[in-house]
Write a structure and sequence with these properties.
About 30% of the residues lie in helices and about 25% in strands. It is of the alpha/beta class. The two termini are about 25 Å apart.
Length: about 160
């Protein structure tokens, strides 16, 4: 885990309704060893918001190219239905709760990320299409910008 993953994890945990599983293995096919069962990813953090009954697949990066993040999101988009089944099967998440990527990137990379997301969002068919990711600037998760004991956010629009 790099430094900013810890900063993001603390930001997420400051909302007392949010429960976090860091470095969570998302394994499309069931099996004992994910290295032998096919596609799998170690998600930086799976965050479950019990208040709003929603799940976030959180990824943190400050890579200037965002290539690794785009590759991961493309893989998720191409397997979104199976990914949702895997989260229910292996993590015990409630299948009816919405799942959405939540990306944490430096503010100056946001436009580049949005350009990459345009191509990725066209992958998959309804209803198994990956929803539009939530994006938060890394600069906004620094500890002096929120209450560490109660970072409650009012529900926002789906494309916020």
């Amino acid at each position: 885990m790099d430094y900013f993953q810890g900063v993001v994890t603390e930001y997420l945990r400051a909302d007392r309704a949010m429960f976090i599983n860091t470095e969570c293995c998302i394994q499309l096919n069931p099996g004992i060893n994910p290295d032998r069962t096919g596609p799998h990813w170690f998600c930086d953090a799976v965050a479950v918001n019990l208040r709003d009954k929603e799940v976030f697949l959180c990824e943190v990066t400050y890579s200037k190219t965002l290539d690794a993040l785009a590759k991961r999101l493309s893989g998720w988009a191409g397997s979104w239905g199976l990914l949702r089944v895997a989260l229910t099967r292996d993590c015990g998440l409630i299948h009816e709760w919405p799942v959405r990527p939540w990306l944490f990137v430096p503010q100056d990379l946001r436009k580049l990320l949005e350009q990459k997301l345009i191509k990725i969002q066209n992958v998959g068919d309804e209803p198994d299409k990956m929803p539009q990711p939530k994006i938060t600037d890394l600069e906004d998760v620094t500890p002096w910008k929120y209450k560490s004991w109660n970072r409650y956010e009012q529900p926002s629009s789906p494309d916020a």
